[in-house]
UniProtKB/TrEMBL annotation:
GO terms for biological process: neuron projection development; regulation of neuronal synaptic plasticity. The gene is LOC111143337. Pfam families: Neurochondrin. One of its GO terms (cellular component) is dendrite. PANTHER family: NEUROCHONDRIN (PTHR13109). Belongs to the neurochondrin family. The lineage of its organism: Eukaryota, Metazoa, Chordata, Craniata, Vertebrata. This is Neurochondrin. InterPro entries: ARM-type_fold, Neurochondrin.
Length: 712
C-alpha cells in the first residue's frame, strides 16, 4: 500500500513543495498561535481553485472544521490583528472545502449559512483587500451550497435571500455576485424564496424596474432578461408596473434587431401572464402601446411559422402567443377596453393572418411532434381565437379539425403527460429558468369553447362527428365529473374544471338540437344520461353551483326526450330522482315579494338566481320546454310532479302576485308545463281545479290551460 501511495505523494510534492511544507507545519502545530501562522501560510500558498480534489481533501484532513469554526466566531483577535482578518481566514478555508461538493453539503458547512449571510451586509472599509477577499470567499461558499441538491432550501431557511437582496441594494463590493446567486435561488425554489423574503425581493424588483425605466444603454436589454425572474407570484407593485411599461414602450417603439426585441417581447408576455392588461395605462398612450405589442407579436409569429426551413425560436413565438391572447381578450371586451373600435378592427385583421400561420404550422405537425410543448402552445392560441371567432378562416379550420381531434385524444389518453406539457409551455413562454403561471393542463379544455361554436355549423359539426369528437367529449366529461363527485374536495378545484363541464354541456345541447339521431344511436350518450341522472339530485343542493346544475338539468331533460324509450327512464329510482331534482331547479327560480303600498305582491327572481340570471335564463326556459316535452313521453312523470306539489304551488304563486309583474314569456313557459300535466293525468287536472286553476288561467289569459281544465 505504501509503495502505491508514495508516487502520488511525491507527485503532489513536486507540483507544490511549498504547500506540502506548510501542511507539515500545520500538522505539527502545538498551539493556536502556531496553527494560525501555519494556516496563513497555507491560504497564502494556494487559492481554492488552484488545487485538485485530492490536495483539497488533504488540506481538510489536516485542518478539519474545528479551527475554522473558532475563527468565524471568535471575538478576541491577537493584538494588532483586525477581527475581520480571522473571519476572512475562516471563510477562505470554508471556500476551499466547499469546492468539494461532498463537503459543501456537510452539516458543518450548512450550519455556517446564517453567519456567512451576515458577512454580505457587514459594514467596513470598501477598499480593504482582506474584506473584499472575504466577501468573494463568502459568495463562493454560498454558491457551492446552492449547487447541492438540498442547498437552496438550507440557504433560504438561513436567511440568505434577504441578505443577498440587501447586499445587492447596497451596491457594495460583490453586489453583482449577490444578484447572480439570487437568480439561481429563485430558479430553484421561487415559491419558498418569496415566502421567506417577499419585502426584500420586492425592494430588489423596485430597484431593477427603476433602473430599467431609466436605462439608455445596452443594460436595458440585459434587464429585460433579468426582470421576469423577479416578478412575484402575487401582485406586482403598481410603481414597478409603471416603470416596466415605460421602459418597454421606449424599447419596442425603436428600431431594433431581433436580439434586442425578443427579450422585451418575452418580458411583456410575462407581464401579460401575471397581470393581464392591468399593467398597461388607460388612455391614448396605453391603447397605442397595446396595439404595438400585438402587432409586433403577430409579425413575429408570421415570420417564424410561414417561412419553411427556418428554425423557429419557440420561446419567443410562445411569448408572442401570450401577447396575441391579450389582444384577443381586449378586442372582445365590451366595457373598459383599452382599445378603440378602429384599433380592434385593425388588430383582428392582423391576428387573423397570424392565426392562419399557426394553422399552417399545425397542419405540418406529424405524430412524432405531438408531445412537444410548442405544439401545445400553438393549439392553445388557436383555441383562444376559436373561442371568440369561427366565421373567418373557416375553410382552414375545417381542414385542421381532424388533427385537433386526434391531438386532443392523444393528450387526453395520456393526461399526466399533458399536464407536464402545460408546465413546459409556461416555462417556454418566459425563460429557460423561470416558470410562469400555470396553463390549463389539457388540450381538450382549450378547444371546448371553439368546438361549442363549431357544433352549431353543419360543416364543422359533421367533421367533428366523423372524427369521433362526441365520444371523446363524453369520456372527458365523465372523467372531469369524477373530480366534482362526493369524496373529492371541490373547494380546491380550479374554476376551469367547472367551466369546462359547463362548456361540454353546451356542446351536447347543440348536438341534441342539431344531431338528435347521434344521441339516440351512440352508446356514449346513454352513459352520459345515466351520469346526469345520478348526479343532479346532489348537485342542486350544493351552494354556489347553480349554473352547473342548470346545465346538467337542462341537458338531461332534452336528452330524456330523445331517449324516452330507454329502460333507465321508465320510472327507475335514478330517473325519479333526476326529475325531482329538475323540478326543484325549475320551481325555485321565482318568488312572490310584497310591495309597499300595494295589496298584491310581484313576481321576482329568488336570491340564488338573481345574480346569475343573465347566464341562467336561457337554460331555464329551455329546461321548462324540455320538461313539457317529456310529460307525454313518460307516463309516470305527471303523477310524480303532482306528488312534488309543483303544479299546485305554481298556481298558488301566480295567484298571489300581480299578473302585470309576470312577463309574457314566463306566462307561456308556466302554461306549457301546466297544460301538459293536466292533459296527461286526471288527478293533476283535479288538483289544479282545487287550486283555483281556471280562475288563475283566466287572469293570465292562459286560454289553453283554461280550456283544458274546463274539460272533464
Amino acid at each position: 500500500m505504501a509503495s502505491d501511495c508514495e508516487p502520488a505523494l511525491n507527485q503532489a510534492e513536486s507540483r507544490n513543495p511549498t504547500l506540502e511544507r506548510y501542511l507539515g507545519a500545520l500538522r505539527e502545530a502545538k498551539n493556536d498561535s502556531e496553527q494560525f501562522a501555519a494556516l496563513l501560510l497555507v491560504t497564502k500558498a494556494v487559492k481554492a481553485g488552484d488545487i485538485d480534489a485530492k490536495t483539497r481533501r488533504r488540506i481538510f484532513d489536516a485542518v478539519g472544521f474545528t479551527f475554522p469554526n473558532r475563527l468565524l466566531t471568535t471575538k478576541e483577535a491577537p493584538d494588532g490583528c483586525p477581527d475581520h482578518v480571522l473571519r476572512a481566514l475562516g471563510v477562505a478555508l470554508l471556500a476551499c472545502f466547499c469546492s468539494d461538493p461532498e463537503l459543501a453539503a456537510h452539516p458543518q458547512v450548512l450550519n455556517k449559512i446564517p453567519i456567512l449571510s451576515t458577512f454580505l451586509t457587514a459594514r467596513g472599509d470598501p477598499d480593504d483587500a482582506a474584506r473584499r477577499s472575504m466577501i468573494d470567499d463568502t459568495y463562493q461558499c454560498l454558491t457551492a451550497v446552492a449547487g447541492t441538491p438540498r442547498g437552496p432550501r438550507h440557504l433560504i431557511a438561513g436567511g440568505t435571500v434577504s441578505a443577498l437582496c440587501q447586499a445587492y441594494l447596497g451596491h457594495g463590493y460583490g453586489f453583482d455576485q449577490a444578484l447572480a446567486l439570487l437568480v439561481g435561488l429563485l430558479a430553484a425554489a421561487e415559491t419558498q424564496c418569496w415566502k421567506e423574503a417577499e419585502p426584500d425581493l420586492l425592494a430588489v424588483l423596485r430597484g431593477l424596474s427603476e433602473d430599467f425605466q431609466k436605462a439608455e444603454d445596452a443594460s436595458k436589454f440585459e434587464l429585460c432578461q433579468l426582470l421576469p425572474i423577479f416578478l412575484p407570484p402575487t401582485t406586482v407593485p403598481s410603481e414597478c408596473l409603471r416603470d416596466l411599461q415605460a421602459g418597454l414602450a421606449r424599447i419596442l417603439g425603436s428600431k431594433l434587431s431581433s436580439w434586442q426585441r425578443n427579450p422585451a417581447l418575452k418580458l411583456a408576455a410575462r407581464l401579460a401572464h401575471a397581470c393581464g392588461s392591468d399593467w398597461i395605462p388607460v388612455g391614448n398612450s396605453g391603447s397605442k402601446f397595446l396595439a404595438l405589442l400585438v402587432n409586433l407579436a403577430c409579425v413575429e409569429v408570421r415570420l417564424a411559422l410561414e417561412e419553411t426551413g427556418t428554425e423557429v425560436k419557440e420561446d419567443v413565438v410562445t411569448a408572442c402567443y401570450a401577447l396575441m391572447e391579450l389582444g384577443i381578450q381586449e378586442c372582445t371586451r365590451c366595457e373598459q377596453s383599452l382599445l378603440k373600435e378602429p384599433q380592434k378592427v385593425q388588430l383582428v385583421s392582423i391576428m387573423k393572418e397570424a392565426i392562419g400561420a399557426v394553422i399552417h404550422y399545425l397542419l405540418q405537425v406529424g405524430p412524432e411532434k405531438q408531445k412537444e410543448p410548442f405544439v401545445f402552445a400553438s393549439v392553445r392560441i388557436l383555441g383562444a381565437w376559436l373561442a371568440e371567432e369561427t366565421s373567418s378562416l373557416r375553410k382552414e379550420v375545417c381542414q385542421l379539425l381532424p388533427f385537433l381531434v386526434r391531438y386532443a385524444k392523444t393528450l387526453y389518453e395520456e393526461a399526466e403527460e399533458a399536464n407536464d406539457l402545460s408546465q413546459q409551455v409556461a416555462t417556454l413562454a418566459i425563460s429557460p429558468t423561470t416558470p410562469g403561471p400555470t396553463w390549463p393542463g389539457d388540450a381538450l379544455r382549450l378547444l371546448l369553447p371553439g368546438w361549442c361554436h363549431l357544433t352549431v355549423e353543419d360543416g364543422p359539426r359533421e367533421i367533428l362527428i366523423k372524427e369521433g369528437a362526441p365520444s371523446l367529449l363524453c369520456k372527458y366529461f365523465l372523467q372531469q365529473w369524477e373530480l366534482t363527485s362526493p369524496g373529492h374536495d371541490t373547494s380546491v378545484l380550479p374554476d376551469s374544471v367547472e367551466i369546462g363541464l359547463q362548456t361540454c354541456c353546451h356542446i351536447f345541447l347543440n348536438l341534441v338540437v342539431t344531431a338528435p339521431g347521434l344521441i339516440k344511436r351512440d352508446a356514449c350518450f346513454t352513459s352520459l344520461m345515466n351520469t346526469l341522472m345520478t348526479s343532479l339530485p346532489s348537485l342542486v343542493q350544493q351552494h354556489g353551483r347553480l349554473l352547473l346544475a342548470a346545465n346538467v338539468a337542462t341537458l338531461g331533460l332534452l336528452m330524456a326526450r330523445l331517449l324516452s324509450t330507454s329502460p333507465a327512464l321508465q320510472g327507475t329510482p335514478a330517473s325519479r330522482g333526476f326529475f325531482a331534482a329538475a323540478i326543484l331547479f325549475l320551481s325555485q327560480s321565482h318568488v312572490a315579494r310584497a310591495t309597499p303600498g300595494s295589496d298584491q305582491a310581484v313576481l321576482v327572481l329568488s336570491p340564488d338566481y338573481e345574480g346569475i340570471w343573465a347566464d341562467l335564463q336561457e337554460l331555464w326556459f329551455l329546461g321548462m320546454q324540455a320538461f313539457t316535452g317529456c310529460v307525454p313521453l313518460l307516463p309516470w312523470l305527471a303523477p310524480a310532479a303532482l306528488r312534488s306539489r309543483w303544479p299546485q304551488e305554481l298556481l298558488q304563486l301566480l295567484a298571489s302576485v300581480s299578473p302585470n309583474s309576470v312577463k309574457p314569456e314566463m306566462v307561456a313557459a308556466y302554461q306549457g308545463v301546466l297544460v301538459e300535466l293536466a292533459r296527461a293525468n286526471r288527478l293533476c287536472r283535479e288538483a289544479m281545479r282545487l287550486q283555483a286553476g281556471e280562475e288563475t288561467a283566466s287572469h293570465y289569459r292562459m286560454a289553453a290551460l283554461e280550456q283544458c281544465l274546463s274539460e272533464p
